């Protein structure tokens, strides 16, 4: 049995005070939750405030990105050392906005994944096809290439600290979500890729989240699918009123 894992990606929204207010509300509301793993990834400038707001709670603190180097002349980047210092234990890597808007390559995403794991972080590796790729029938080819490249040289031991988020680019922030059946079929395919690179046991243990316009109204149907183990949520994670019902999808 894989543990359900719901993560909130706050992207470039919220000041430190706004982020701490929502994180505090979530921490109180989820104080007695034990089943589902929950993570929040606020903007870098709100990490310290959110860490303080989450003190004593089971909600994990995540970062939306990290540099592939630990320190140096990298103007505008944030290193894993700084993220650890801010209380971060999970990093989201290869988000489609990083890949498609900021030009991150598979090779760079892999360097980030390897460094994050070597530094003791958990990683969420995002993969997903664009609308053009889906319409051209190359979804599987794209997610296989991103999965293989993202996990290149990751050991079986370190793989246990990786979650894969399947996020079809056309569904992110657009209100168009993949049907639960579409999501499940790509997740099953990704699980097969992990199985062929590692082992059947590693594939069965791999947590695969779906991301792309997840809302309180569609989370239950998504989570009912065999290969959907959780969600990476953008817009609907910004307010406690919409994120809580997603975390409590089974209630
Ligand atoms: C995301 O930020 O990864 C995401 C899936 O966003 P949204 O839920 O808003 O589509």
| Molecular shape | globular
Radius of gyration: 17 Å
What is the tally of beta strands?
A: 8
Structural class: alpha/beta
Number of contiguous helices: 12
Helices and strands, in N-to-C order?
A: EHEHEHEHHEHHHEHHEHEH
Terminal Cα span: 19 Å
β-sheet strand percentage: 15-25%
Q: Main sheet: which strands, in order across?
A: 1-2-3-4-5-6-7-8
Mean pLDDT: 97
Sketch the major β-sheet: 8 strands, parallel, barrel
- Show unreliable segments: none
* Percent in helix: 40-55%
Bound ions, cofactors and other small molecules, one mention each:
phosphoenolpyruvate
Give an account of the 3D structure.
The protein is an alpha/beta fold and 251 residues long. The protein is built from 12 helices and 8 strands. The chain has helices at residues 16-29, 47-53, 80-85, 96-101, 106-118, 131-135, 139-150, 156-159, 180-197, 200-205, 219-223, 240-247, and strands spanning 5-9, 37-41, 60-63, 90-93, 122-127, 162-166, 207-211, 230-233. It has an 8-stranded parallel barrel with strand order 1-2-3-4-5-6-7-8, surrounded by 5 helices. Strand 1, helix 1 and strand 2 (37-41) form a beta-alpha-beta unit. Helix 1 runs parallel beside helix 2 (47-53). The chain starts with a strand and ends with a helix. The model has no long low-confidence stretch (mean pLDDT 97). The structure holds phosphoenolpyruvate. Phosphoenolpyruvate binds at residues 9, 11, 167, 172-173, 211-214, 232-236.
Short summary:
Helix 2 (47-53) links the parallel strand 2 and strand 3. It is built from twelve helices and eight strands. Strands 1-2-3-4-5-6-7-8 form an eight-stranded parallel barrel, surrounded by five helices.
């Amino acid at each position: 049995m894989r543990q359900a894992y719901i993560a909130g990606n706050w992207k470039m929204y919220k000041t430190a005070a706004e982020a701490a207010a929502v994180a505090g509300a979530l921490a109180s509301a989820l104080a007695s939750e034990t089943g589902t793993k929950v993570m929040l990834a606020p903007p870098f400038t709100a990490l310290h405030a959110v860490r303080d707001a989450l003190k004593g709670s089971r909600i994990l603190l995540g970062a939306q990105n990290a540099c592939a180097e630990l320190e140096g002349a990298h103007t505008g980047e944030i290193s894993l050392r700084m993220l650890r210092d801010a209380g971060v234990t999970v990093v989201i890597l290869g988000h489609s906005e990083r890949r498609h808007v900021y030009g991150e390559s598979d090779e760079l995403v892999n360097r980030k994944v390897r460094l994050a794991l070597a530094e003791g972080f958990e990683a969420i590796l995002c993969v997903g096809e664009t609308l053009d790729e889906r319409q051209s029938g190359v979804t599987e080819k794209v997610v296989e290439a991103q999965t293989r490249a993202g996990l290149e040289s990751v050991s079986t031991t370190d793989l246990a600290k990786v979650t894969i988020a399947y996020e079809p680019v056309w569904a992110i922030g657009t209100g168009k979500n993949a049907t639960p059946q579409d999501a499940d079929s790509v997740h099953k395919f990704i699980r097969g890729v992990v199985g062929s690179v590692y082992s059947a046991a590693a594939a069965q243990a791999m947590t695969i989240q779906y991301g792309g316009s997840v809302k309180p109204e569609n989370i239950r149907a998504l989570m009912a699918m065999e290969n959907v183990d959780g969600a990476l949520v953008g817009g609907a994670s910004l307010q406690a009123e919409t994120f809580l019902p997603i975390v409590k999808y089974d209630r």
